[in-house]
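dude i think i finally got it to work??
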Amino acid sequence: MVNQGGGPESGRVRQLWHLLEPLHAVLYYAPEVFEEAAALGYPTEERWPSYFPYRAAPLGAVGGERVTSAFYSFSPRTVAEHIDHAWKIAEPEALLRARARGIDRAYRAIFGARTDSKELGEAAALARRAAEAADTAGRPLAAAHAALDWPEVPHLQLWHAATLLREHRGDGHIAALLVAGLDPVESLVSFAAIGAASVERFESRGWSPEEWASARARLAARGLVDADGTATEAGRELRRTVEDHTDRLAAVPWRALSAEELDRLVELLGEFWVAVLSSGLLPSETTLGIGKV
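look at this
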């Protein structure tokens, strides 16, 4: 599945994201990872106290403003609530080690004997080649992960590759939102408007009802949503444009693999994707709209 320009088609790029995203997201839901966070001193009654420092750790001990910029869709208040004191509990280097230990334990619990299989090793090698080809200029989270040392064992290499590639895509998605003229809260309101996820699911981003309503009014003034918050055809077209632009920006790393290698990676990832989804760790609805956009 290669286009005339020699790169992977948008559909293949999005398929690989769908397959790799759950492998990355184990970091935010696996009990083994929460246990590692608790050992450092982070509260684990909910996922946010460890989510923010775990995800931001590759950036270093940066403040809330830089984390808000990189994460984009979260309210600055929500980021500040968790980041302002996060590095007082543990330094970024300790968090990087803790998340590696947690993912090692979680993958072994989910995959069992398949953790050390030649199929997983082959998938890790292919994903790593793509991740190492990622362009990181203007992509702060991808660049921060690219600067980290690669783990030695294949299953952690697979997780690191999945993480680098998803942050690469995320950085590009922010660029696509900026081009579309969608600020952080507008990006969520417009996404909810096309049914990517429920409004309630987006409440985790920390915006107040007043901020949500104001963003909806701004989108309505642009003809992008109706009075009830449902997307107009113009609103749906704008979101299609954003997702297509995101796919194009995410395609560069995958050009490091041939069409046959991309097919093989999709084949290899299937059983591990199923294992993660079957684990019951991940929520059935997320703010990413996977399977709906």
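Residues 154-179 form the longest helix (26 residues).
im so relieved honestly
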